[in-house]
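Section 3.1: Structural characterization of target chains.
Under the original work plan, the team committed to producing a structural model for every single-chain target entering the pipeline before any wet-lab resources were allocated. The record below documents one such target. The sequence was received from the expression subgroup and is listed exactly as submitted; it comprises 287 residues.
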Amino acid sequence: MFPIIGFIIVTGCVIGGYLLEHGNMSVILQPVELMIIGGAALGGFVIASPVHVIKSVISATLGMFTHKPREKKDYMEILMLLNGIFYKIRQQGLVSIESDVDSPKESPLFTKYPNILKNHEALDLITDTLRTVMTTTIAPHELESLIDQELEAHHEEALTPAHSVSTIADGLPGLGIVAAVLGVILTMAKIKEPPEVLGASIGAALVGTFIGVLLCYGYVGPMAKHMEFIAVEELQFMNVIKVALLAFIGGGAAPKVAVEFGRRVIPVNMKPSFLEMEEAFREAKKS
């Protein structure tokens, strides 16, 4: 929703300012210039990108308009899930969660939190880590290194669309100059025409530079930055899981203490208070 609002603001302010200065819209409405710049940018992107990157960029672009930012309740849910897992392990042993880990969609622990079941990356991090601990004798420092590498790989993959779109944005001003140069070449062919014809032709040529710069800094560049923020937000969410798991499994902390470790690394604007978590735990025990 907010990206759409941003697009409207950029377009409204640029076009509105132009019209307030009594500009002629027919001069800057140059679909051929847009076709040259947009087509060249799209072609360069296809040349530079493997198929899976193209698919991820399309998915990220569509997801940017439907993405729901993380809220406090999302962090509370993951902490409550981890608390339930930790308590079951502490009371019944590590083997007791084997069925939960193997079939989370049928587990009473996981099915209480359908939003987490839909988050495949977070779900995989929890279940794969617990499986590793159950089936190996991995040392705490090795487990931390393993999770760090997984998160780094996940984050790099999540940033791929942002980097690709940023590369497109960087090339748009140059492609705008290409379109402008082509316009100048066409203008030179009209050198014998009267001044008003030449002026209109030169103005149309300069629109190419205008479109390239506007697309770069007003639309495509901000889109890349938005995708980057989404990737960072997901990394923050995964980091909460990592910290809580390591505190419980690697540090031997009590369930509530391990959850508190996770709570402390939640971004400040979404961090639930200690009392809010206590109240949520009490409500969960009643249900």
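The mean pLDDT is 89.
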